[in-house]
């Protein structure tokens, strides 16, 4: 064995290349750091989906009280079981069952540290099946790609169709799947697209997945945040056609992403998943991660019980108004257009026409210059797998939204080619 020379150590661990897939956070940090250090203007964040700090979006006081009560009860100072506290799992099962044609039980629920850990648990379980591949939407939520790379799970992308309300391109889906494909992901209501899928489209997805012999991972982080013509329909409704893993979280509907509480629900009323042992793998993986803070779990039954209150109506109305403001303002901007109005979630995808612009070659450069010149942050589509597009978050304080969009407009005007 070669021993390192003390004066000249050769560290075995060397820096390797970073993963080429950047998370949304990394891209946003890049934008924020792109401007001069001397510039002290506060950024207007149209880049990420966390409105919790804005007064208009603060969660209902009863939710905060539920946490305080849980802490003060002294009943939640211990470790929780790996799968989550039983009353918490039962409450999540009840909450989800209200929208399903069958009932989930606490056995169908795993409690996770936010929605992102739900993604991690499911993808790392699938990575345990060698040769498996999964299908992700494009554009999508890059945390899926980042996680899949991390756990060595092969993935492929099917397209979403902007001209059809960002529905799944079923042909593209079918052409990608092969005998090793085990699952597909949908995000509904959509991040980044603001789509809300109709009952018919979800049914079509379920039938296609059944035909392909794959199950569906339905990311419903924005569940119930729908304000267009279509109601939110959970994918679990089609659980008898195709097994569904539903991923959920308190982060978005309750605007409390800091509380780090999510779940994986297995909707498999026909028992199709039993022999695959995939649920055992999920449970196995869950044991590897640390689970959410026990007192937050303890507050969940009360928080979910309150899920139909005034807060939610006001919240969805506010999102709807913000989406309208955003679309109306974007329409006034020549180099940007919006092929599909958002009907849910907190985002809209808009197309950037760079050839109208003087000194901007692509969406990334657009966002860098926008951050630098106007202190406005917008997410480049490149970060989401769709070059030439931008994702705008409209879930921010309405006065700031107006200001940010006015700056976006001024920026575009200033960079438009003189004809
Ligand atoms: C925010 C989000 C999640 C999970 O969020 P957590 O903050 O980890 O609860 C999952 N999927 C999508 C599409 C999201 O936007």
Topology:
Elements: H1 24-32, E1 44-46, H2 61-72, H3 86-97, E2 109-112, H4 114-127, E3 133-138, H5 143-151, E4 154-161, E5 167-168, H6 170-176, E6 181-187, H7 199-212, E7 215-219, E8 244-249, E9 262-267, H8 278-286, H9 294-305, H10 310-331, E10 336-337, E11 347-352, H11 363-374, E12 376-380, E13 389-393, H12 398-415
Parallel strand pairs: 1-12, 3-4, 3-6, 6-7, 7-8
Antiparallel strand pairs: 2-9, 4-5, 8-9, 10-11, 11-13, 12-13
Helix pairs in contact: 2-9, 3-9, 4-5, 4-8, 10-12
This protein binds pyridoxal-5'-phosphate (PLP).
Organism: Stephania japonica
Keywords: Pyridoxal phosphate
Family: Belongs to the class-I pyridoxal-phosphate-dependent aminotransferase family.
A few lines on this structure:
With 419 residues, this protein is of the alpha/beta class.
Description of the molecule:
Keywords: Pyridoxal phosphate. It comes from Stephania japonica. One of its GO terms (molecular function) is pyridoxal phosphate binding. This is Aminotransferase class I/classII large domain-containing protein. With 419 residues, the chain is of the alpha/beta class. It is 36% helix and 16% strand. The chain has 2 domains: 143 residues, Alpha-Beta Complex (Aspartate Aminotransferase, domain 1), CATH 3.90.1150.10; 245 residues, Type I PLP-dependent aspartate aminotransferase-like (Major domain) (Aspartate Aminotransferase, domain 2, 3-Layer(aba) Sandwich), CATH 3.40.640.10. The protein is built from 12 helices and 13 strands. The strands form 2 sheets. It has an 8-stranded mixed beta sheet with strand order 2-9-8-7-6-3-4-5, sandwiched between helices. A hairpin with a 5-residue loop joins strand 4 and strand 5. Helix 4 crosses helix 8. The protein is globular, with a radius of gyration of 22 Å. The model has no long low-confidence stretch (mean pLDDT 93). Pyridoxal-5'-phosphate (PLP) binds next to helix 4.
């Amino acid at each position: 064995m070669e021993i390192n020379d003390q004066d000249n150590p050769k560290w075995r661990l060397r820096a390797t290349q970073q993963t080429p897939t950047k998370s949304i956070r990394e891209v946003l940090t890049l934008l924020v750091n792109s401007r001069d250090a001397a510039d002290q203007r506060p950024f207007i964040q149209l880049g990420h989906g966390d409105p919790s700090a804005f007064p208009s979006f603060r969660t209902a006081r009863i939710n905060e009280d539920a946490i305080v009560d849980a802490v003060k009860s002294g009943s939640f100072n211990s470790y929780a079981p790996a799968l989550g506290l039983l009353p918490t799992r039962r409450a999540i099962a009840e909450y989800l069952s209200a929208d399903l044609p069958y009932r989930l039980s606490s056995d169908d629920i795993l409690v996770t540290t936010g929605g992102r850990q739900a993604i991690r648990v499911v993808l790392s379980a699938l990575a345990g099946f060698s040769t498996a591949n999964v299908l992700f939407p494009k554009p999508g939520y890059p945390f899926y790609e980042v996680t899949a790379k991390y756990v060595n799970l092969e993935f492929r992308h099917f397209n979403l169709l902007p001209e059809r309300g960002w529905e799944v391109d079923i042909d593209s889906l079918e052409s990608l799947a092969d005998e090793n494909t085990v699952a597909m992901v949908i995000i509904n209501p959509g991040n980044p697209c603001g789509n809300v899928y109709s009952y018919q489209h979800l049914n079509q997805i379920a039938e296609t997945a059944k035909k392909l012999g794959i199950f569906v991972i339905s990311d419903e982080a924005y569940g119930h945040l729908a304000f267009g013509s279509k109601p939110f329909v959970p994918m679990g409704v089609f659980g008898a056609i195709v097994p569904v893993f539903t991923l959920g979280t308190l982060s978005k509907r309750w605007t409390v992403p800091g509380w780090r509480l999510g779940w994986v629900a297995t909707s498999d009323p026909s028992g199709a998943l039993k022999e695959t042992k995939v649920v055992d793998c999920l449970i196995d993986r869950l044991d590897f991660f640390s689970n959410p803070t026990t007192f937050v779990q303890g507050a969940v039954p009360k928080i979910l019980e309150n899920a139909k209150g005034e807060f939610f109506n006001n919240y969805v109305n506010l999102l709807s108004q913000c989406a309208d403001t955003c679309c109306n303002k974007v329409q006034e901007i020549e180099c940007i257009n919006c092929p599909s109005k958002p009907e849910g979630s907190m985002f809209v995808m808009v197309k950037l026409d760079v050839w109208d612009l003087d000194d901007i070659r692509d969406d990334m450069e657009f966002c860098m210059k926008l951050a630098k010149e106007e202190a406005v942050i917008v997410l480049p589509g490149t970060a989401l797998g769709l070059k030439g597009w931008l994702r705008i978050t409209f879930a921010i304080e309405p006065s700031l939204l107006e200001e940010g969009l006015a700056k976006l407009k001024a920026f575009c005007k200033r960079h438009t080619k003189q004809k």
